[in-house]
Amino acid sequence: AEYMGARTFYQMSGRCVRCVKPASPLCGKCKMVYYCSAECQKADWGLGHKEKCKELREKAEKERNANEGSPPPITPSRENAGNQMAAPQVWLYSFDDLLAAAKYRVKLPKCGLINRANSCFANSSLQCLHLCGPWRGLLQLPHPCTEGVCMLCEAKDFHNALTDANVPFLPPLMDRLQRAGDIFGQGDQEDAQEFLRYLLSSFHQQYLTGHGNVNGYRVQETTPIWQIFGGYLQNQLRCLNCQNISNSFEGFMDLSVEITPDTASVTDTLKSFTKSEDLSKDNKFKCSNCNENCIARKTISFRSAPNVLMIHLKRFTHHNGLIRKVSRFVAFEENLSLAQFMSHPQEGAVTYRLFAFVVHFSLRQSAYSGHYVTFVRDSSNQWACIDDDKVIPVTKEDVLRQEAYILFYQRNTIAPLPGWDPSLVNKPKKKSKSKTDESGASTERTLCIDGCGFYGSPETEGRCSLCYNKSKGKVQAPTPPQAAQAQPYPNPYAQPYPNPYAQHQQRPLASGSQFPQLPEGITEEMFREFLKMKMNAPPDPRPQPSTVMPSEFLGRSTAPEPSGPQIPVPRLGRNELCPCGSGLKYKKCHEKSA
Description:
alpha+beta, 8-stranded mixed β-sheet
């Protein structure tokens, strides 16, 4: 175990396994350990790596085979299209569904999630998605389902359970992900950003299954997941010799920005991200107009802003082969604007509202361990800190002084992706699990879009009758139905205390006596004295682990004896628990007095 753990550490750090110096060459066979020189490699092979090399190769091969069934990561499109961005030829899902889903109102959960084996990275990520209104409203709409495990159905059940729960519980979504990809093992310290990427990739692939084989990046990027979290960057290269312009576009779902010594706020990170850079010397740009390598100016801007913007602050950096955490405070705005960073005019204002962010706490700026918590805000502007199973209300001042790691902003005006055309919407090949009537209208019950907990209908614009009448100005005060009592989450670790006498052979009452047939050496007088001592003894303040009552030891029941065979009586051994309820063995409790 020490051998495997040391090599896992040195593989991440990029240091020699013998002298701990920075090294880049890897072992030629297992590709898992570093050596700085041939002497260190020869010494390590003599100490046991020659035998362990094959074991490491087999382990790596098993991990690759186990990950074959996991959903591939989302590969953003990267295209060169001159000054215009290519539009998708087919839209898999309509933008109108997102407009309806964005009206969903979210509320703070009453409880958190249980931390099972360092699962705080998953709990914090799931809580951020729970307060994302467009995502919650999207789950209320029909979606394509597959045989077996449907990640979208699992997500919908999880969010509904968290909304109604009064006590913390274990999210079953984690077990589904571990069985599907075996990437996030139990007990490992994982990164919240990597988990969010994998989770959104799973949802994205689930939406693609309803349309079979989809060709083209731009067509694949029309799923509801991409319409919520996806955006596009424009990379512009301007030749300083002939002023020729070349544009390329790249998709993204989360924006990773650097933290520099001059960084004071999130706006500063965006300015540094979009800052112009001159390509010169060995990094010159080959201009298609000049037909030679020329000095060019590179500029990055936002071509299309996402409806939910995830900003990842790079707090983990590599320094001398080690990973270190940047604990610098970066001020973040409650209301953010991207107008100055856009390359083209957008439909509607490009302003955002902060609704959640993740914070990573660690000791001594450690990047290999720590704890994740979440700060979230609901539709009524109430903030709360969710630390695994605890939900703590906080003020706005407490929120703005945190060292944020991942920020979640929701756009105030929902806008479509570039190239949106309602006439190009394609219907899915596989039917979803929604029910329809004879006219083809959906009859599936969905929750009210106002978030009151009742069910709405298409006839009332997705609202329940009470919220619909309130929106129309009608006065109606019906008696709301009583909410169902939330079932407490069963504790899987609570096991009934075992009966210590169940495994022994049981003996009947002695003939002509009210006592059981006692072991050899114990008379009835001794047993009467034992009972008298027990009845006169003061009550034991300690907790009573045993559930065996004295009446059961005597072979009698406190209730009237039923007709039929008599109750069998167990034997009492020296190493068994004493029936007085002290929790000690019989030989150390009442054997001497008996």
